[in-house]
Amino acid sequence: MSKTAIITGGSRGIGKAMSEKLGELGYNVVINYRSDSSKALSEKIASEISAKYKVETLVVRADVSKYADCEQLVDAAVKKFGDNIDVLVNNAGITNNSNWIDITHEAYESVIATNLMSALHMTHLVLPHMINHSSKDSQCVIVNTSSVGGMTGVINQADYCASKSGLIGLTRALALEFAGRGVRVNAIAPGMIMTDMLRGVNQDELKALAGTIPEGFIGDVSDIAGALGYILTAPYVTGQVISPNGGFVLQ
Ligand code: NDP
User: Which of 91, 109, 242, 243 is the pocket-test mutation for ligand 1 (most atoms within 8 Å of CB)?
Assistant: First the structure.
């Protein structure tokens, strides 16, 4: 029987690579995006995945920082693929780069809503469509995209680090709550990965930061898609934070 995966923020960067991995593993993929400018991009990725891996895809615009939009996203997935959802990847994320004096409350509320509240909303809405069919032999999996920032601190990213630490707490608590009921919950905490998110920051600062990575280079989206592939095929792994980071948090 075919299986269904939902990924938030699947239009670009890490989310795009993870959408492709889901297709490669044989899931029907529901790709979420938010910006009008990403509609065509998301539709292109979806049709490429369908053609290459012979799975079905659905593209849904939703701002996952809002509960009502999350409801629409899950409803659309259930309407197209049925009441059983097998995988949820909470990947949508944004960042600010501001000191804690000058930042506005609107800016940090937006980061918390997009990065953390979205995962609370989506897990709340999707879990009923998982526990209705999950079992030891037919596991469902939730994967939250955290960050090394959630494991360490990053200057001028207090809101981002708080959101990403929150995702790790959510991961561990839900892993315990649903252990033995066929639902595994894990997090991926990427180090520095070259995407639009990094292209948007000061490139001199980025270069200096990249020099502090023990492996000596910035990672690729395939490093994170590979971690997703591992988690999805590792039945004994739950409540874990897998962190492809070039040794970044060892120092
Ligand atoms: P990008 O900026 O390249 O992509 C962000 C994605 O999130 C886009 O698909 C975007 O959609 C989507 N998104 C943002 N806000 C919303 C929203 N409210 N509702 C729905 N979708 C939304 O970022 P990355 O690929 O780099 O990051 C992906 C994840 O990985 C994020 O959670 C990020 O925090 C995390 N991460 C990234 C690291 C890096 O070095 N790149 C390091 C550690 C963690 P749209 O295209 O419509 O804007």
Answer: 91
What are the catalytic residues? 160
∠ CA 169-175-181, nearest 5°, is: 160
Whether 194 lines ligand 1, by a CB cut-off of 6 Å, is: no
Nearest CA residue ID for atom 41, ligand 1: 193
Per-residue pLDDT, 106: 98
pTM, rounded to two decimals: 0.98
Domains of the chain: 3-193+220-242 (3.40.50.720)
Tell whether ligand 1 has an atom less than 6 A from the beta carbon of residue 90: no
Both structure tokens of 206: 């980025």
pLDDT at site 208: 87
Residues 188-197 as b or e (16 or more Cβ within 10 Å = b): bbbbbbebeb
Ligand 1 close to Cβ of residue 195 (< 6 A): yes
Cβ pair 87, 18 in contact under 8 A: no
pLDDT of residue 133: 97
| pLDDT above 70 coverage of the chain, percent | 100
Indicate if the pLDDT at residue 88 is higher than 90.
Answer: yes
Query: Is the CB of 154 within 6 Å of ligand 1?
Result: no
Interatomic CA distance for residues 15 and 31, integer angstroms: 9
Q: Give the closest residue (by CA) to ligand 1 atom 12.
A: 9
Instruction: Quote the DSSP letter at residue 192.
Output: S
Radius of gyration (Cα) for the chain, nearest Å?
Answer: 17
Above 90 in pLDDT, residue 249? no
